[in-house]
Amino acid sequence: MLKARQCVREMRVYHSPLCGPEIDLRLDLNESTTGCSPRVLAKIRSLDAKLLALYPDRESGEKLLSDFLGVKAEELLLTNGADEGIDLLCRAYLDSEDELIIIVPAFAMYEVFAQSTGARIVRVSTAADLSFSVEKVLQAITPRTRMIVITNPNNPTGLAVDRADILRVLQAAPSAAVLLDEAYFDFYGQTMMDQIGKIPNLFIARTFSKAYGLAGMRLGALVGAVEQMSVVRRIIAPFNVNAFAIECLKEALDDRQFVANYVEQVRSTRESLGQQLDAMGLKYWPSFTNFLLVNFRELRQSVLDTMTARGIALRDRPDCPGCIRISIGTPPEIERMVSVLKEIMVEKPVVQQVAK
């Protein structure tokens, strides 16, 4: 009887939260509900049949993005979303019985990709307030540690990690690939990109799915030291990034004002939402991203069910008891969600106010 490898048969299954047609407002996947730059849309409309009949030229896009980020083209690899970069690192550096350290709660795909290699997952919990605990991470490092993932800012908490703590982890595990997932960099503004080429075990992942509004194009990047990236390139498919993404990359990068405007809108709307949550006595965590993690306690399921019934998708976070993650949409979209939330709170108020 044909059987897949045991580690694959035992893998955690990732279930997409994509909703049915009854949902018309998705605040569950941290996408930009504003959409992409008009310049990107115009570029898509200008593409001709011949271009789409040819294999895409990834290298030209890598040169564009490396110049934008201030790194060498040899230090950067365009990927099919940031997810592919995570997968590539797991395949390049993890063997069966090697250890991958992740800080939980975390993005589910870290575990999924690592499990496909047969590696052992070492889950390090955050501090009681969900902040990054560098001491716990350092204590978890062993001679078998071959990869460590740090998301900064974190998903799902929205909290940031101090640069000094990241450097301590890098120094403590020189034989491990340390992936710094900077998916939400544009909302945070702080990066370790200046250390690429200086710290040989540092890798950084970026995505165009958030601030650039290009989740549907599946475009990301993996950045690391030249000697390490040359190894990663050996296992990537030759035409992994589609022609739409490569052709539109320049327009997305050049329209900096569009991205800046969107980021400012997110920050303003996030602050306004926080104030309304305060008024309802709900706890949430300070966020450096385009979402808020909110603790609804015993009302969690009622909130999820009511929002779904009203056509609004929020993201359940069972790994954070009582919590739901809410993506920051446009002001009218957030007001619509808050209006429903206020109705729920009137019908079923929380037992007691929880201080932030």
Which properties best describe this structure?
globular; 12 strands; alpha/beta; 5-stranded mixed sheet; Aspartate Aminotransferase, domain 1; Aspartate Aminotransferase, domain 2; 7-stranded mixed sheet; 356 residues
Any overview of this molecule?
By secondary structure, the chain is of the alpha/beta class. It folds into 2 domains: 17-32 and 257-347, Alpha-Beta Complex (Aspartate Aminotransferase, domain 1); 38-254, Type I PLP-dependent aspartate aminotransferase-like (Major domain) (Aspartate Aminotransferase, domain 2, 3-Layer(aba) Sandwich), CATH 3.40.640. Helices cover 40% and strands 17% of the residues. The chain has helices at 6-9, 38-46, 49-53, 58-69, 81-93, 109-115, 134-140, 163-172, 185-188, 226-232, 243-254, 256-279, 300-309, 331-347, and strands spanning 25-27, 76-79, 99-104, 120-125, 145-151, 177-181, 202-207, 220-224, 283-284, 291-295, 312-317, 323-327. The strands form 2 sheets. A 7-stranded mixed β-sheet has the order 2-8-7-6-5-3-4, with helices on both faces. Helix 4 runs parallel beside helix 11 and helix 5 (81-93) packs parallel to helix 6. Mean pLDDT is 94; it is low at 352-356.
How would you briefly describe this protein structure?
The chain is of the alpha/beta class.
